[in-house]
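Annex B. Sample input.
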Amino acid sequence: MPEPGAPGWAADPAPAGGWVGIDGVDYRRVVLCFLFRDGRVPDGDGRQVLLGLKRTGFGTGRVVALGGKIDGAETAREAAVREVAEESGIILVPSAVRAAGTITWRFPAQPAWNMAASLFTAEAGNAAPVACEEIDPRWYAVDAIPWQDMWQDAPHWIPQLLAGRPVRATIVMASDSEGIADAVVD
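Annex B, continued. Sample output.
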């Protein structure tokens, strides 16, 4: 797997949208952005992360991070800011969005689902998310993540991100495109 910062793999700036080849495999370029807030907000207790129930599209029915495809010539950071606004109504200042690592998902049985993600984090303060057609965002306590409602790879790498450590991961999904055939997390 290319190192962060190598062509086609930088968190930001990044090549324009679409697909990227890594080690001879094509991946759709996507972003995921994890928003955090502390528990001193009216409905909170302890550190919280914003996740959402996917209502439509890829991952319907699962709890996921906010994010999506990189469009046109936008950078990964610009895509993260746009996706957060579209999926939660929360407007982020680009300079406050921090790179948090990279991850690839390879779906051998469904190569069109392969993704190379740039990961980001940001503080959301007391921002209140608003549901959209695609996702219903909700704050979760960092120590009460709904793992059973997420993709099976989530427990392999999200704890590292929640702990504030950069993530470099490669996930190979099983032939059923649900289970995990291999997970390497640095």
